[in-house]
Amino acid sequence: MTLWRVFRPVMGLFLAEKRSMLLAGAVLAVVTVFAGIALLGLSGWFITATAIAGASAVRALVFDVFAPAAAIRFLSLARTAARYGERLTTHEATLGVLAGLRERLFRNAAQPNASNRLSQQPSRTLFRLTADIDALDSLYLRILVPAAVALCTALAVGVVFGVMHPLLGLGVAVWLLATGFGIPLLAARWSGLPARRRAYNLEALRSRTIDVVAGQTELAMAGQLQVFRTSVLGADARLAVSDDALNRIETKVGAAFGIASAVLLGSVFYAVAYLAKAGTISGPVAVMGMLVALAALEPFAALRRGAVELGRTILAARRLGPDLVATASPLPLRVPAENLAVEIRDVSVTYGAAPLPSLLNISLTLQRGERVAIIGASGSGKTTLLGLLAGEIKTSQGEVKCMPSTLLTQKTELFQDSLRNNLLLADPEATDNRLLDVLALAGLSDLVAGLPQGLDTKLGESGIGLSGGQARRFALARLLLRNAPIWLLDEPSEGIDGETARDVLQRLAGQMTQRTVIIATHIRREAALADRLLVLEDGRVKAVCCKGQPEYQTVLNGLRPD
User: What confidence score (pLDDT) does residue 179 get?
Assistant: First the structure.
């Protein structure tokens, strides 16, 4: 795969997001370098010319000190202003592009069928959103901008020396291009493998560290804590080896640039000395040439870090490239007929390359206000059916029409933030009075009233600070805040004690009026809320029974008791 194919999606995003700022940053970087080299060269010429003019009273009287002094002041101010503008513009543009990149990745993660993939590899997803995206800042700041500046510098310096003598200008330009770009290219080739190994080792270290920290209690009880600790130390040791290899390469690149600069400076010294002796150029011009040669390779040295990190940047671009392709907008919600809440016809769902479908030829219609319980053994397709109705899963075949819905998952997801902000995820426009109302309906009013900071109380990671029952009631409050016509409840009382479960279900039942409710469950107390039972087995509808029929009570009695 060529570099252009790897970087094309990233470059497309760069140009689409901040094209003008990226170009402005590159121009300012060129101006900064040009002003610096010109300032150094002109200062050397001015000092030398002033010293020569001072040796003679006649020359001193006719020597113009004002124009060079004004030019030096101008170049000094221009360099400072251009450097400030370049730093401000390039970093603002880069951070803006990376923010847009994260937004694009988050949008892709919100597409149907993405949640299953994300849940299977959460640490890998986190690494893509952090380290991989951060690695792409090198593409612009440490590769593209320095390369553009270095190219312009080589051409400009070649022209300066070409004015002194054409062959000198050609030789200097060729040397700058050959060594200035050749050394970073060699460094990029040498560092490709260790840079990729460093990325893999860093990912492994983070993932294993998270596993040890999050599961240390379970690992200690299973006697596996030392094994995992050893794996973390092993990943850290391999990371150190990769870092050492990259540092050695970067040191060698710095030494190579030093040697190239010394060769260039020595060659220019002999060349300008010869030209000055021959009378082709003056002494001050010769000094100016020496100082210009001294600074000529400095812009190329800025490529050193980018070249060493190029392998990591390529790896990040290759990983993120497929996810940067613009995703199609979600299909508009297809609403069923006026008296129906859900209409499913001949729907099948298959996950990725799974050999068997999770749902097969499912057909189902629900009247508005109807309550249905989907029951079956684990793996029968209950959660898949809820995800299908919630729009989180795509169908392999068939048609789904559904009114707007909200899903209460088995796991209550709470974030390390205030109670208010956790609630506002369901309705960002909700007032504090509205939040307190739903908390009261969920049975949490006394809890919030007893907190010194009320709604501003901070929760810990994953909702630490609330008990299991309180967290489940909090999820119920968010469900009520969403106020959707269809509730999708995935085992709403699973994992909490019987008394709390009965209270949660009672509160749910009290708010089900005028709503269509679909409950995925294998617990009797939850299924008893339904008017109709839908029995799934291996992704197929095995039986349907309504309340009042003998089969209804038979199926209900076969479920796990309260």
Answer: 92
End residue of a domain, out of 275, 290, 324: 324
- Does one domain contain both 115 and 176? yes
Instruction: Please enumerate in sequence order all residues whose Cβ is within 8 A of that of 361, keeping only pairs 6 or more positions apart, or say none.
Output: 346, 347, 348, 398, 540
Distance, in Å, from the CA atom of 394 to the CA atom of 438, rounded to the nearest integer, reads 32
In this prediction, residue 117 has a pLDDT band, given cuts at 50, 70 and 90, of low
Query: Are 375 and 308 found together in one domain?
Result: no
pLDDT in tens, 258-299: 999 999 999 999 999 999 988 888 888 888 988 999 888 888
Indicate the average pLDDT of the chain.
82
Average pLDDT over residues 370-385: 84
Helix (H) or strand (E) segment spanning residue 215: none
- Calpha distance 345→8 (Å, rounded): 41
Within 10 Å of residue 116's Cβ, how many Cβ atoms?
A: 14
* Contacts (Cβ under 8 Å, ≥6 apart) of 553: none
User: Helix 3-54 to helix 66-109 angle, to the nearest 10 degrees?
Assistant: 160
β-bridge partners, 519: 373, 489
Mark which of 324, 349, 383 sits at the end of a domain: 324
Amino acid code (one letter) for 415: F
Please name the residue ranges forming H helices in 425-460: 432-441, 445-449
| Residue 371 included in any domain | yes
Residues 6+ apart with CB under 8 A from 383: 410, 490, 520
Count of domains for the chain: 2
The parent domain of residue 358 ranges over 340-557
Instruction: Please check whether residue 356 lies inside any domain of the structure.
Output: yes
β-bridge partners, 541? 536
| Count of other CB atoms within 10 angstroms of residue 427 | 16
* Cα separation, 461 vs 451, whole angstroms: 18
- Secondary structure class of 124 (helix, strand, coil): helix
Strand locations in 260-370 (E): 340-349, 359-367
Asked if residue 329 belongs to a domain, the reply is: no
- pLDDT recorded at residue 123: 60
Phi, psi angles (nearest 5°) of residue 256: -65, -40
Sheet with 516-521, side-by-side order of all strands: 405-408, 486-490, 516-521, 371-375, 532-537, 540-546
Q: Note whether residue 135 is domain-resident.
A: yes
Identify whether residues 207 and 266 lie together within a single domain: yes
Task: For residue 223, count CB atoms less than 10 angstroms from its CB and return exposed for 0-12, middle for 13-18, buried for 19 or more.
Answer: exposed
Please count the residues of the chain. 562
Judgement on whether residues 66 and 198 belong to the same structural domain of the protein: yes
Find residue 365's DSSP bridge partners: 343
Please name every residue paired with 404 in a beta bridge, in sequence order, or none if there are none: none
Mean pLDDT of 61-70: 77
Distance, in Å, from the CA atom of 428 to the CA atom of 448, rounded to the nearest integer, reads 19
CATH assignment of the domain containing 159: 1.20.1560.10
* Mean predicted confidence (pLDDT) in 532-541: 85
Mean pLDDT over 383-405 rounds to 82
DSSP code for 165: -
Kindly state whether residues 394 and 460 are assigned to the same domain.
yes
Of 53-57, 272-276, 301-305, the one with minimum mean pLDDT is: 53-57
User: Locate tokens 């299953």: which residue?
Assistant: 116
> Six-digit token pair at 175?
């040397």
Give me the residue label for tokens 């008791």.
561
